[in-house]
Amino acid sequence: MQATTMETVLQLRNVTKKIGGRTIVDNLSFDVPAGEVFGFLGPNGAGKTTTIRMIVGLISMTKGEVIVKGVSVRKQFAQAMTHIGAIVENPEMYKFLSGYQNLVHFARRHSGIAKERIDEVVKLVGLQNRIHEKVKRYSLGMRQRLGVAQAILHRPSVLILDEPTNGLDPAGIRELRDYLRKLTRDEGIAVIVSSHLLSEMELMCDRVAIIQGGKLIDVRSLQDTTDSPQARIMIDVGNTALAYQVLTDSISDLKISILGKQLEIESDKALIPDIARLLVKADVDIYGIHSSHKSLEDQFLEMTGGEMVV
Amino acid sequence: MSNFRDLLRNENMKIYRRPRTWLMIGFLILSLLLMSGLMKYDEVRNDSSDWKQQVTEENQVLQQEIQNNATADPDFVKNMENEIKLNEYYLEHNLNPNELSMWDYVNTSAMLILLVTILTVIVAADMIAAEFSWGTIKLLLVGPASRTKVMLSKYVATMGFALLLLILSFTVAFAAGAALQGFGGLSLPHLSVSADGIIHESSMIADSLQQYGFAIVSLLMYVTFAFMISAAFRSSSMAIAFSLLFMLVGNSLTMLFSSYGWVKYLLFANIDLTRYLAGNDPIRPEMTLTFSIMMLVAYYVLFQLVSWLLFTKRDVAA
């Protein structure tokens, strides 16, 4: 997804929230282009939820501006909301209504949503067999799907998901991820998602903003990190002491440590063949070499100074 | 953007799709039928075929009383004189005062507006608070409608529910009266004695509607109050508890402190406008109908303003 060529659909400009002298969100500014999945990362209490709720107008801004498709959320709330679809935390629906009635409820608020559109969305999230049942008989996964249906009924330009994977089983999470991919690809919707499940965010997002103490620390593209040559190399060897000796002697400035019967090396992937050759020459038995790039979690912990509470 | 009619339809759907609402409506109808049945039972049990003799005897007793209490309170004497006049009128026109007409059922049903008020308070209390406890408030507010519009749709839907219950009470009582007494009493006049001691005939339906009208004033105030508490504390139980508490103890509280001048500024001292009808006294001698209406309007505006401020200006954080 080429972020630069796409139209910007959501802009945050110096968004600030102060409650009783304490700054919860501090001068947040960033842009999200159409078709991108944009993630919010941060330790608990960093201001993720507050920021998301300011975007949808549930919480008022002390200062700053949120602009959706050129419309200010603060000044023209109703107009701005026609472009936003949201699932805030668990998708809470009216349990005494059927899934269909719930969708009718949300559809009525927007002008011009035809019955056909409701049916289409129901099909899209795969609820057509159970849609006329009361929501109280739905499983959490089904409620989540109904939540997605409700959020995309009016073809919004921006979809906002606050902790959407809370309480979902792995299959449900995967399902949600697939929907989001499909929506961004097929309908060009920008998705803003906050979660504390880092591995999920890694799979879901194109870019992530890292927030700590209400401040934006970094916005980075996840494509870059997966392509990054920097890797963690684990080598299973017979004689760890000998292998350690050989490698430290031959390669200078090598980040290497012994982990049980394994060597852990942080280095460029291009170095792997050299390392293997060196070990073979020195007659060290190799049982396996495994390399992995640095996970988002590692990077995240690095950046936020390990202040993560998951 | 949402138009108001659609928002109102949504709120109505949320009221009438709940089984609880139909339970409440059923309960109201049952109470009305029970009331009508008891009235009929009472009439049948007290045989009044010799009513002419009874009324004549009653008048003699009243005459005696007046002679014995010539120095008593002039209001007291006046009341008795009026009663004698009415009784004489009954005898003259051959109207049995003990025989119920269908209008008696309708008039008695006006007392059940207290029940209508309680039921509407329950609905009003849930209107905003339940959205918070269900967690649906977030989705409700993240829509293309201002909070003011959302709140107004909720208030109007609540009042629509009250109106439905009122029409239901009137109709059920009317139908029960007609079924038990026949339509014979439909054109019976409502008799009253005016200040100058002359008997007036007026329309029964006007009298019934007046009774309903006075009861609706307190309904409107208590329901709006419950709505405000619902918006303020976001808790239905608190809204129900406070409203019912005020309904129950408000009156005795005002009576208890009626010797103090500030009592007249309390909601409860003004809520019962029947106190300004002939034959009743207001809580404080200096109170007038205009004063009470002004106080009620002031309270109403205050309740609405507080609800609006708390619903539209506060963050939804939880």
TrEMBL record, chain A:
It holds the Pfam family ABC_tran. Residues 10-238 form the ABC transporter domain. Coiled coil: none annotated. SMART domains: AAA. Keywords: ATP-binding, Nucleotide-binding, Transport. One of its GO terms (molecular function) is ATP binding. Belongs to the ABC transporter superfamily. This is ABC-2 type transport system ATP-binding protein.
TrEMBL record, chain B:
GO terms for molecular function: ABC-type transporter activity. Keywords: Membrane, Transmembrane, Transmembrane helix. This is ABC-2 type transport system permease protein. It comes from Cohnella lupini. GO terms for cellular component: plasma membrane. Signal peptide: none annotated. It comes from the Bacteria. It holds the Pfam family ABC2_membrane_2. PANTHER family: INTEGRAL MEMBRANE PROTEIN-RELATED (PTHR37305), MEMBRANE PROTEIN (PTHR37305:SF1). The chain crosses the membrane at residues 21-39, 110-134, 155-180, 212-233, 240-263, 289-311.
